Amino acid sequence: MKKAFAGTLESGDIMIQIEPSDKEGLQINLDSTVAYQFGEQIKSVIAETLKNLDINNAVVNATDKGALDCTIRARVTAAAVRATGKDVWA
Question: 13 CB contacts (<8 Å, ≥6 apart)?
Answer without folding.
Answer: 7, 65, 67, 71, 75
